[in-house]
Amino acid sequence: MAMLTKEYRYQLDPSSKKFRCPACECKRFVRYVDQDNGSYLPDDVGRCDREQSCGYHKPPRQADGIELTNMLYSRSEPTKAPKASTLPDKYLKHSQGNYEANTLLSWMASLPGWSWEIASSVAELYKVGTSKDGWAIFWQIDEAGKVRSGKMMAYSEDGHRLKTGYTQDWIHSKLKRTGHLETFELVQCFYGLHIVDDTKPVAIVESEKTALIASQYLPQFHWIASGQLHGISEYKMKPLAGRSITLFPDIGVYDQWKVKAEELKDVASIKVSTLLETKASERHSGYDIADYLIQYDLRDFSPYGWNPWTEEVFDSRGYPKEWDDLSV
Fold first, then answer.
1. 301 in any annotated domain
2. C-alpha distance across the termini of the chain, in Å
3. Are 293 and 275 in contact, with CB atoms under 8 Å apart?
4. pLDDT surpasses 60 at 82
5. Is residue 267 in some structural domain?
6. Distance, CA of 124 to CA of 267 (rounded, Å)
7. The CATH number of the domain where 223 resides is what?
8. Do both 143 and 202 map to the same domain?
9. Structure pTM?
């Protein structure tokens, strides 16, 4: 029997297409789409995905000529799951290796207690690719082992993302521009989803880089990444149904992820870590658990032994006390 569902007529464009933000002028602006005809709303109606550093958001209700009564409608059938396009494995395989040319991995290998062996093993596990320009390629591989696409990101030698000019792209977008793909429907999954099994609980962070780093300091969790602040959804959570999950939000977005955890409580057992909110001395936008962890030498950081450097946060088993009720 079909259920009556309510949906917003105007929704943010789910594709990877970005426009220039009317506020910060970065090409990170996502526009609203009219679900009735597929057309975009006016140029300034949308949200900049640089939410913490820009924050621009003009919703449809603030647009001229849109009546509030027309914004919400009911459907007699449930919304179908999006049909995801996938890429041949050859593109992923071609990007593997050549880690010395990868700027992000070079920086990771230089962290206290790290080495090329450790950075390479992390890259192999998470299938990190390297572009010809030394960018990191974060391949999204779903629970069936299918490649959804690869997110390309440029990093500086100090491990920070480059954010000016052309510094981010998608493999499928490059293939379309070069004529190797005609059509492609990007439906994202969690980064690192392919490593998840039944042996450990799951930890979710926003940044792909953070998942790589945290996996070495706290290996008693499967670390995966949402890829963006608003990257946690019911669709993406479905492969994790029934699991124990802890969200680790960046500084400043705890409340937003707490709301999302409540919305998805019927999908999985989800907790939201307060570690950074209560313990981190750094309070700037974007500070995350990786920034906290790399303060410590990895060689001194034993996940199951006493660590004097983190005694205020970690107990003798190496993880925060508030995680005690998680099944490991």
1. yes
2. 39
3. no
4. yes
5. yes
6. 30
7. 3.40.50
8. no
9. 0.73
